[in-house]
Specification:
Helices cover 48% and strands 15% of the residues. It is α/β, with parallel strands linked by helices.
Length: 564
């Protein structure tokens, strides 16, 4: 029963702190962590009362979240491009695209999870780009350069290259921003009227903007390099810039006809460039992609919320060698799939899988699932007997639908799963605030919180070969709205023990020996209760073992496909 203060609409101190943390989370990206910590600090006996008090503020919080600007404390790889005035991208040391704004995707041809096309670099830019890459690999924090590039259509431009740090602390990343695309003649007048540049100095500034090459300017003007540098120092002094990079940025901002164009993060696109879509009448759109050998033996991959579906090159090569075409469905709410069968996340995913098999005219397939992608795989096998010939799960998954089954989990996962089942309103607010933090700090914010209690997984996702794939994964999760995350929390809390006797086919699970969320002893205990489940525990691995142990994952998949 509510006490007198709750009946009067007056909140106690603990609830007030919880509400205050939620409001701070709207404007400060660090507020998401505080909200979770405040709830965790509440004594279990006070949580029901706090939730009732919190509900009084829910409508105001939702309205505040909807109308507020993006939160402060923006940082990370995405911050480098969110407010760029033109095409921009972020890449890892091996040139895999980690982030790109909409103009960057178009101009640079950059897909998150794909690779930067170095052919756009002009010949004179390639040595400098190699030095920039080396600085990134060495973990340097400071390196700036100008890179002449040739954009689609033959346009010449200059890109600023520099280094940034991810929210995860490592790795160091490369940022490229196209800061000069075409000289605007009005700039000559502005430089002379606002900065008192002479006509000769204006010509030097334009030459630098268009070529980023002092030696070339010297040759074309018939003067010594020393003379050009002397003139540039005078230009820097008059414009208040510190060097070539700042001067070109200044001129770029003067040239920009539409300063805000290109700043928005790019929308979700399949990094493999193979996405296909089809409509299910009355239920929406289903998107899917594939890996392996086109026209090969068909199989199906069901992704988890944070794993994505893009497998490492080692696994993709093995699929091709084994003549497997692995179709990867994008589950409802992820990426471009808007399909809704009208049920919960589990039944909707199962219905979408059946619709994809119908679309591909496949009577039955072997199914690979990643981590909690096992849940819709099991539901599909139970709902559609005979359509799933066998299942392989990479990463492990167990039931988490009661407090006892969640007790072993790290606090953040335990709290969010508990809220999803017991307090959907508070879970919804937390997800809204978390989505705003992702917009401010980028996908790496979510990944750092997800894996903070798993050193093995943190090491795996920080690997440059994996980092860009997981950036694409979080973009896929957040492409539509925060409700996809809430629904997937409910999916993870589904009682899969009720499904296991109904699946009618073999299930083999690879689980990480150091996974704190789905520990191996609990996975093995679940398998021991069902004769058709076998397990393999992977040493020195966490939940992201498909990324940290690609050779072992590829071997398990190859053996699985041979047996099914």
């Amino acid at each position: 029963m509510a006490d007198a203060s709750e009946r009067d609409g007056v909140l106690d101190a603990a609830t007030l702190e919880l509400v205050a943390a939620a409001y701070r989370g709207i404007y400060d990206s660090d507020g998401f962590d505080e909200l979770i910590e405040r709830w965790h600090a509440l004594a279990p006996s006070r949580r029901e009362a706090a939730a009732r008090g919190f509900s009084l503020q829910s409508e105001g919080l939702r309205a505040a979240v909807s109308g507020a600007p993006d939160p402060e404390n923006a940082s990370g790889a995405f911050f480098a491009i969110n407010h760029a005035t033109g095409p921009a991208l972020v890449m890892s040391e091996d040139h895999a695209i980690v982030a790109a704004n909409s103009a960057g995707s178009t101009v640079f041809g950059a897909l998150v999870g794909g690779h930067f096309d170095r052919d756009i670099l002009r010949e004179e830019a390639r040595p400098e780009f190699a030095r920039l890459t080396a600085a990134c690999r060495e973990g340097q924090r400071e390196y700036h350069c100008l890179l002449p590039v040739t954009l689609p259509g033959g346009r010449s431009a200059v890109a600023a290259g520099y280094l940034t740090q991810s929210e995860l602390g490592r790795p160091t990343l490369i940022v490229m921003r196209a800061i000069g695309i075409g000289w605007d003649e009005r700039v000559s007048t502005l430089l002379q009227s606002q900065f008192a540049l002479s006509e000769a100095e204006t010509l030097i500034a334009r030459a630098l903007f268009e070529t980023a090459d002092v030696a070339r300017i010297s040759r074309e003007r018939g003067t010594s390099i020393r003379t050009v540098r002397t003139q540039l120092r005078e230009i820097y002094a008059k414009t208040g810039t510190s060097g070539q990079v700042e001067l070109v940025r200044l001129i770029s901002s003067l040239c920009a006809r539409q300063p805000g164009e290109g700043g928005a993060p790019s929308q979700w696109q399949d990094p493999l460039g193979r996405e296909r879509q089809f409509e299910v009448p009355g239920q929406g759109r289903i998107a899917f992609s594939w890996m392996g050998r086109e026209g090969g033996r068909p199989a199906l991959l069901i992704h988890g919320p944070f794993t994505g579906y893009i497998l490492r090159d080692e696994i993709q090569s093995r699929l091709e060698a084994d003549n497997i075409q692995l179709f990867a469905i994008h589950r409802p709410g992820f990426g471009n799939t808007t399909f809704r069968a009208g049920g919960d996340a589990v039944s909707d995913a199962s219905a979408a899988v059946a619709a994809l098999l119908d679309h591909l005219q496949l009577a039955s397939v072997p199914v690979v699932s990643l981590v909690s992608g096992l849940v819709p795989a099991l539901q599909t096998a139970a709902d559609h007997p005979g359509r799933v010939r066998g299942m392989l799960n990479l990463g492990g998954c167990v039931s988490a639908h009661t407090p006892e089954l969640r007790r072993h989990m790290p606090p953040r996962q335990r709290i969010l799963l508990s809220l999803a089942s017991s307090n959907p309103m508070l879970c919804d607010i937390a997800a809204r605030i978390g989505a705003r933090a992702v917009r401010a700090k980028g996908p790496e914010f979510m990944l750092s919180r997800l894996y903070e209690h798993s050193p093995r997984d943190l090491a795996a996702i920080s690997d440059p070969r994996v980092f860009s794939l997981l950036m694409a994964t979080v973009l896929m999760l957040t492409a539509q709205d925060h409700k996809t995350f809430v629904r997937d929390l409910q999916l993870i809390g589904h009682p899969i023990d009720d499904l296991l006797p109904r699946i009618g086919s073999r299930l083999h699970i690879l689980a990480g020996a150091e996974d704190p969320v789905f520990p191996p002893d609990i996975v093995e205990a679940m398998a021991a209760r069902h004769q058709h489940i076998t397990t393999e525990i992977v040493p020195a691995a966490g939940q992201a073992l498909v990324h940290s142990h690609p050779e072992q994952s590829a071997k398990a998949m190859s053996e699985f496909f041979k047996e099914t």
